[in-house]
Design goal:
The chain is an all-alpha fold. Helix content is about 80%, strand content about 0%.
Amino acid sequence: MGKRTRTWTLVRLGGAAGVAGGLLWVIKFTVIALRDDSFEPLESIVFVGGLVGIILGTIALAALVARRESRWLVLLVVVAAALGSFLLQIGVQALVNAAVDADNLGISEEVGVLFVGALWLAVGVALTRRSPPRPIY
């Protein structure tokens, strides 16, 4: 297997992880909104599983963007992307949650999770479906 194929396989796997993470968060939102309450202890497992998938998707996206740079720069970009993604998700969730006021407490508290989850469903699908326009070495 050539370097190009190996790199693209890793990007697609990261995209699949992003899809799985986004899907877990959409499921988390749906169950909480329907119940208007949490579903512990599984809720924590679904949240962490989704977060891990989304961070893996972020790492794949960062590696794809920085693929032509030196190894140290790629490593720096990947670490920064993972940390930045985590912080950005917290910020986006807080902003979206603050903007939505619903009678259903589950919707009010979890709409940010739905927004980020749906976004990562789309990004992950794009990473898994996109074929490289030119060799990625």
